[in-house]
Amino acid sequence: MKSIMVYGAKWCSYCKLLEKWLVENAYNYEFKDIDNDLNDQELGIYGVQGIPFIIIKDNETKHTIEGFDPEQIKNVIGS
To answer: Over the stretch 43-74, which tens digit does the pLDDT of each residue have?
Structure first.
């Protein structure tokens, strides 16, 4: 099972679209609000430069996606 972590902000329109898309496609995910849940050091560890920033990982691999790209998300989750 792959886990999905979304770094975003409540004011971000693309983050809202991503969350809606994840719910509509029945993907479980965790949302971290960069304004409230994280500090600059944690953002730096993951190399977050833009939002939404998505980390999809399983036991063996970790994929990162910057921005809302449904096709890319599907490709990574399906692989």
So the answer is: 677 777 789 999 999 888 899 999 999 999 99
Q: What is the mean pLDDT of residues 3-27?
A: 95
Residue among 52, 63, 60 at smallest CA distance from 15: 52
CB 35 within 8 A of CB 10: yes
List the domains of the chain with CATH numbers.
3-78 (3.40.30.10)
Give 19's contacts (C-beta < 8 A, 6+ positions apart). Answer: 6, 8, 29, 31
Q: Which burial class, exposed, middle or buried, applies to 34 when counting CB atoms under 10 A from its CB (0-12, 13-18, 19+)?
A: buried
pTM of the full structure? 0.84
d(CA 9, CA 71): 22
Q: List the structure tokens of 72.
A: 């890319």
